Amino acid sequence: MAEREVELVVEGHPPGLQHHFSDLEQQREASTMGMWVFLITEVMFFGGMFLAYLVYRSMYYQAWVVGSEAMDFWFGTANTAILICSSLTMALAVRASQLGHRRALVILLIVTMVFGIAFMTVKGVEYHGHWLKHEFPGPSFHFEGPYEQQVEMFFSLYWAMTGFHTLHVLIGIIIIGFVAYYGWRGEYTPAHHNTVENVGLYWHFVDTVWIYLYPLLYLISHSHPYK
Amino acid sequence: MAEHISSKKTYIIIWITLLCFTVITAAVSRIDLGQFSGAVALIIATIKAMLVVLFFMHVKYISEKMTLVVIIAGFFWLMILLVLSMTDYASRAWT
Amino acid sequence: MSTSAVPSPEREHYLNKDYGIRSWLLTTDHKRIALLYLMLITFFFFVGGFFALLIRLELLTPAGDLVLADTYNKLFTMHGQVMIFFFLIPAVPAVLGNFLVPMMIGAKDLAFPKINLASWYLLLIAGCLMLYVILTGGVDTGWTFYVPLSTAFLNTHVVTAAIAIFIAGFSSIFTGLNFIVTIHRMRAPGMTWGRLPLFIWSNYATSIIQVLGTPVLAISLALVGLERTLHIGIFNPQLGGDPLLFQHLFWFYSHPAVYIMILPGMGVVSDVIACFSRKRVFGYEFVALASIAIAVLGFLVWAHHMFVAGISLYAAMIFSFLSYLVAVPSAIKVFNWTATMYKGSISYDTPMLYALGFIGLFTMGGLTGLFLAALGVDVHVTDTYFIVAHFHYIMVGGMVMAYMCGLHFWWPKISGRMYPEGWGRLAALIIFVGFNLTFFPQFVMGYAGMPRRYWQYAPEFQVLNVLSTAGATILAVGYLLPMVYFLWSLRYGKIAGDNPWNAAGLEWMTTSPPPTFNFEETPVVTWDAYNYDYLDRDKKDVKEAPVG
């Protein structure tokens, strides 16, 4: 693998090649691998909360059913659809960068951002609703229903997991904004568009986390009282 | 450089499949499956996740095996965290 | 002036290429970043050491008469947090690793130089936050942040300390990420995995742990912070929360963290033993794979820190069994180092003294770890000074010695100067004596029942405590000496030349100090690591081909 000895053009190296790499291929491979390694750190980060969820769901299943019923099914489902659509536009944007279609790239990235903002808007409305119903943990928490303390635990996990997820969506939107700007300036070519690919990987990862959060928080079966 | 470029059609098909599975998982959650509802929901979520990883994240088409190793390692380590921790919680009642 | 002639005009290298603070604070050269880290962690070593000295002063007498109990809690907390997160975790990877990893594989820099610089800034910011915590009242949760003490019962700077460590954790993650990608993708032509120095294998294994474990620390600290500030009570018993869940999450990182701390040191020792035995490391493949095995197995044992905390007996048995397993690859390494020295041509330069000290002291620390893996023994000695002695044998007797070993070995490469050998050996001996005097009595007092984290103790333990404090002062002298003579050597040390040890490794095949891009031309590697039979081919008393 390391037998790479590319003869570079006499007058210098290709645009975008950083000097410590021997060629664009090595740079691209390194960059992609770096992004994947970063994504598995994110898997472990969210993993801690998934452990907490798993532990308490196994201990307090009834309360989990009750808590899940208090979630807004339509907001959750809409957000799932929104993120899936945003993943489509993101994948198409990466494709545009592979083909050098600058205009399509920028438009698709902006549409992805719009979907992201839509997600956050829905989440904002949802959070606001929970807040008004005193469903935020702490001294002001109040829940009309059985297992009030354990439902507060369910909500603690809900706020923590979706809160961190939404934070990642926000960061993604900002980064996509920067990438769209650089894309508009023509900085990405078919030979050198790794940034777009990596941002795409990040965004799809954020979508994947939500793909798991949705059934775990919103879809716990309503139809049977006991596990 | 040999980089696979998926067709728009592929992406659209995956997108529609993901939306369908979303509808399926929502609908199935209304059915009483007893102790299997959690497992079914997770299986459907995993199918969706794999579609995103394989197609949107191009994992199906990459040539570098290391990427697969990295992904599998990440998943495996998450399983270590979840499974080994649960050995404690699952067996507390036995003592 | 130096004691040898300085060649003129002065050759350009990474130290004199640019001058000025901006060229350092905005550098992307991995070697300069390594020195930035060196300054940062040396500073924190002395901060942590200062807390250690106060602890040992308090423990001179059985009564709690130097500081208040709450203050004592802060002392051992800050000692632990500073030493672990701001010294031990970064020490070898971020100083020696940053400097050497690209050179050892024949690369011009790490894969992501800017992320490397960002890692340093993250640690700097984290360090400033930690200093703020220290100077404004400290934190007293114990370095382990256990809940519900940390979430519900303390009024000290828990959240700020948690944020500081969270940020330091990301510094660690980015270093690990950088190393993994670099080692995979940037090896020079001919530098196959089987030809890598064991220092690289160790840092690679360390990086795997950093990348997979540290995020779990991050989330556990984040959840503590959320519970304190926003009442999101994931660990709150009133909501049915389980304080042990925090411990599971915390130790899932913090046990592998001890392997983050020790593995790079093992890599240093491998390279140094080979050089000062003039032999290839015996069982190279086994040592390399043992590093990976330690990284993997190290993730399977964390609940041995929780045997008496309330986990189920069956889980305890599983973790006890797995904890025995993790000792095996470490033992494989110790045996292989010993076999490397067998029939080798040994010389006792300072790095070798530290390496030998490491082998002995790490083995003692590791063996006592096996005692602790046994459930019956652990119930008796957990939360006593036996534990304190165990981990200090590994961390100080092992890791700090390995760090000193590496610093001395590669100092000529880093600075172009030799340290004074006589002073180096003296300091090593003082450290060895001081260390044992400090920590061996702690095994005895712990076994006899003295609890840890107590600021007063039963009078029958006083003699042992006095011995320990005496040892600590000797140890302090031992650590101050290198500070002085390394600085001295920068100006007055002998000019080192490219390879003063005649050591194997690509880093020795370039100048000391190296040029900014490490090599005049990218090396092409056609030989195995530790090719001492080739390096020593002109020696008349060269023995027959080394084993392994």
Keywords:
heterotrimer, B: 95 residues, mainly alpha, 2 domains, 3 helices, 72% helix, 0% strand, flat, C: 548 residues, Cytochrome C Oxidase, Chain A, globular
Number of domains of chain B: 2
Please identify the structural class of chain A as seen in this structure. mainly alpha
CATH topology of chain A: Four Helix Bundle (Hemerythrin (Met), subunit A)
* CATH architecture type of chain A: Up-down Bundle
Compute the number of strand runs of chain A: 0
- Spans of chain A of at least 5 consecutive residues whose pLDDT stays below 50 are 1-11
> Could you name the CATH homologous superfamily of chain A?
Cytochrome c oxidase, subunit III, four-helix bundle
Strand content of chain A: under 5%
Q: Shape of chain A, please?
A: elongated
**Model regions low in confidence, pLDDT < 50 over at least 5 residues of chain B:** none
Radius of gyration of chain B: 18 Å
Fraction in beta strands of chain B: under 5%
The number of strands of chain B is: 0
Explain the overall architecture.
The complex is a heterotrimer of chains A (about 230), B (about 100) and C (about 550). Helix content of chain A is about 75%, strand content about 0%. With about 230 residues, chain A is mostly helical. In chain A, helix 1 (about 25-60) packs antiparallel against helix 5 and helix 1 packs parallel to helix 6. With about 100 residues, chain B is mainly alpha-helical. Chain B is built from three helices and no strands. In chain B, helix 1 packs antiparallel against helix 2 (about 35-55). With about 550 residues, chain C is mainly alpha-helical. Chain C has a single domain, classed as Up-down Bundle (Cytochrome C Oxidase, Chain A). Chain C has 16 helices and no strands. The interface of B and C includes residues 74, 84, 87 and 94 of B.
